[in-house]
Amino acid sequence: MPTSRGLASSAARFIAVVACLLLLPTHGALAASFTLACSSTTASTGPHEINVNGPGSLSDTLAISGLSTGDVVTFNLVGGTGNGRSGTVSQTGGTATGTGVPTTVNLDAVGSTGTIVYTATSAGTANMTITESTAANGAHKMDWTATCVRPVTINLAPSSPLPGGFQNVSYSQTITASGGTSPYTFATTAGALPTGLSLSSGGVLSGTPTASGTFNFTITATDNVGNTGLLAYALTIAAAPTITTTSPLPAGTFGSTYNQTLLATGGTPGYTFALAGGALPGGLSLAANGDITGTASATGVFSFTARVTGSNTATSTKLFSLTINKADQAIVFGALGNKTVGDAAFTVTATGGGSGNAVTFATLSTACSVTPTGTVTILAAGACAITASQAGNANYTAATDVTQSFTVNQAAQTIVFGALGDKTVGDADFTVSATGGASGNAVTFATTSPACSVTPTGTVTILAAGSCAITASQAGNANYNAAPDVTQSFTVDQAAQAIVFGALGNKTVGDADFTVTATGGGSGNAVTFATTSTACSVTPTGTVTILAAGSCAITASQAGDGNYAAAPEQTVTFSIGAAGQTISVTDPGTQTFASGGTVSLTGTASSGLPVSYASTTPAVCTVSGATVTMVSAGSCAITASQAGNGNYSAAPDVALTFALDKPPQLTIIVTAERTSMPFGDTSLLTTTGGSGSGAVTYSILSGSEFCRIEGGQVIAIGVGTCVVEVVKAGDDQYAAAITTVTIAVTALATEVALGSAPNPSAEGDEVTLIASVSSGVPDGTVVTFTAGSTVLGTALVVGGEARLVTSALPVGATSITAAIAGGTGFLGATSDPLVQTVAPASDTTTVETIASFVGERNDLLLQNDPSTPRQVDRLIEFNEESGGSAGGSAFAGSGLAAAALSGPAALRPPAIGDSSFDDGARSFSHYAKLPFAMTGSTEAGTQLSFATSLREMAYYAESHEAGRDQAALALAGGDVPGAQRQRHKPSRFDAWVEGHYAEFGDERATGDLDGEFAVAYAGADWVINPSILIGVMAQYDWLSLSSTATTGEIDGKGWMVGPYATIKLSDNIYWQGRAAWGGSDNEVSPTGSYTDSFGSRRWLATGKLVGRWQHGDLTFSPVVGLSYIEDTTETYIDTLGSTIPGVRTSLGQAVFGPEFSYRLVTAGGLVEPRLGLQGIWNYSADQEAAGVILTEGPDEELRAKLDLGLKYTGTNGIVIDLSGSYDGIGSSSYEAISGRAAVRVPLE
Question: Is residue 833 reached through a cis peptide bond, with omega within 30 degrees of 0 on the bond before it?
């Protein structure tokens, strides 16, 4: 430390130096004074020169008189020789006030200039000081000039705001000025005019604005002598509407109905659309409401410009492209049946499409031929394929060829050889014939029978009585098989003769005589007749006479001769019946019922006999003779009869029915709640009028597919017109009354809303398109999803929505719409376009890999945060040393002394480490602890940790000799002697190290991740006082991951450094906190084929409250804490030239819960069971990257962890600490089961 004499000497030298500096010259010229008188005309002074021999400064003074409020004095300063100077103007006196000074300008180089403006805010005089200053050596010169100007007030009109205008509509407004000397010129000096408007020098603001909004600008008017005035204006240009429908429009098809609505937004509603240029496809038109409708009558790509005009006349246009595609056509060509060689030519037909071109036919087969018009000729056996074609035209595409094939089989042939009649000996030769098959070979004949002979050509000769069998044969050829032989046989009989006597018709008594005839055999003898019947008689020559009713049998006979045998007799029988009769009755027709009224019947029998009548409905009518008497209304049934007599049989009864109708009711009137209603709605029918007490019923007379009736309510079930029949039933007084009412059912208007998930997505990812339809659209309706002119697919409506999953969307932004066609009861609709953004897959794979890696690393760093009980123990030690509480205050009523917990007792948690040393005076050995934790879960495999500190090594080295005695004392409930307790003095400084290693597997939807992780911590801390500990720690970590799904690999090395602290808040509660910042260097191989490098920045913060209470042998230790880590990777260009965006990954974790432990003293040592339950909540688990949707991030969930432990401390100094935990209670995606074993053994 310096003496007082040395301090005095130093001060004297300092004062001398300052005095020398103050005596140095600062300029080379004297200050000057000047005056300036302000008036209505411009006044000025200068230029004046100031020279400074630097370093230093020099000033001139200026006395300004005649100042009026608003006068402006401008000081222009110019740098001369030298450099590194500045100029300052300040007001140092006078009666006037002003703004703008003091101000300093930099005049560093020769020729540099600066301007300082003083504006008077009150009238009077002002004294100004103009100063040149420099810190450099040498000569420096500055020139200055002062000019006083009294401004003239120039006013502009009109005032602000200006009258508004409309976008794309011509605008004109004239600005005028007054107060100065005309003429005036105008200019825009601030802000910007609306695009499309300009200001002329004469003040005319005109043009056609092309942008909308409120525009703020300043117009300055300058008079003929240079005075200026300005005014800030606001001008609002109302927006023009813009057409929002995208181009190209959805394509149409020739001949099909087209419907597309142009939509607009902005401007003033009440839009009107019109065609501004180009032409629509033929058949289509643009309506004023924006509907493009019609049936396309031409094909091609059509360009046109549509104009939309708002109600405020603002307008805009948009160019559209619309493609009308050719219509498809198809051929309907039915299957052809197989044919056989020899079949006749036949014609095939097919129906073509809408082009009207003829369908033509062709074949390359050798088994057949076909003309273009379809005539098919069978040529040979084999396969025949016929192709139907139809050409397209300007409006239709050519139809796809349709081929039909059939088989031409080898023809079979047959012989048609008819049966041969029997012959009689003596018959002449005769020829037999047979027809063969199509081979054309001759049919030949043969026989082996002795009764006849036959030539090959078929001449037969009768030889004798007996049986003759003749066989017909025909050989085959190349196209036909040989025909099967056909044999016909006949008998050669003795000659005979026969009578032909035809059947006789029945007769009736009274019929006239008639003659019968018969034909005899070859003998030529006459045929004679005879009968034995009593009902008739017959002469030998055949005259028959009717005698009576009954049966008459007549026999015909013919005698034989030498060549013929007698002919067999032939008998013919017929009946003789009584004569029949019929009845004819006249129908009286429908009668109106009158009680007791009569109706006369008219009827006759063909026999002339009288007709009798009977009623079969006596409740309705009775009959007497031919008179019918009415009994009640209804259907009257009458039977007419004639019984017959000896000559006539009874006539068939005739039934006659006619109605006795009730009188009609008064007219019934039906009123419908609505005669036109939308699909699904109802209409209530109300009926008035009529007569009697009959009930009213309703039924669908026609259109049952459009309406359903329930009681008196009509329900619309289809689009169309239905007719309801209304019947008021009759009663005993009146007939039923009937009328009808017609109901029209219209279709419902529908809407479609389209959404997607996810959006944006990655290339190749499945995207779900969700189309929500309005009520009234039934399940099963087809929704078509379209991107431009490409149909992505269709889906059916289920529960009001249809979903389509696609992974074929291109990279970039795609506009997608969903549409439904009209159906039963509803109209078609198309959604507004949805823009789906798809990111490239290669970028996504890399980003996904990086995000998974960084998220895994964040999770591991939070899981393996350095242990903190050491810091609490350090503060407890200092509290014990200072005589304060040990930090484990007893509950009320506790009898446990704090001293029992102090000192290096064997009850303290064992240190983590393994070492020994000798200081030459005495030997020290440690207890060794080998912690090894093995975890099997979805996010952890094998873990190994270590930790130690200078404090712990010194503690165990110094306590070893007394360790066993202390354990025994503790078990006995005694205290440690003071001398022994004080052997270990707590140190304010401590350094420590800790490390963790883990080998794990992580199964995710994106693939299995396997990896290794290691982290090492080193730190040092200082106990400021028994309540505060502060320190600093550094960490180094390493993580390596590989994916079995993508063959990708990634590893990284990182570091972080930062402070930590522990603060004792009360006897039982401690706060612990840590913050760290750092970075990492990483290498990634997304697919295993190339490797890229990238870095990251990261930081973390943790904080927790730890409590410790004791009640007897029970210890209660609650904890609540928050941790947060965030890591942001850098953007880089990968080996493939793609830009990989930076990924920001964050993870927060909250932990809370109690731990309980209890000390049990046994004969063999001290047993301490413990139980802990901890809640864990991951929060702020985010992963994000520009333009990429990350498919998986860390889980955000609340779960619980259960810890169970048992510690044994033996009297021999051996400590065994066992613990196990289950982490994942209440979680569906996380589960970890871990165990820990720690053993501390004296090494000597």
Answer: no
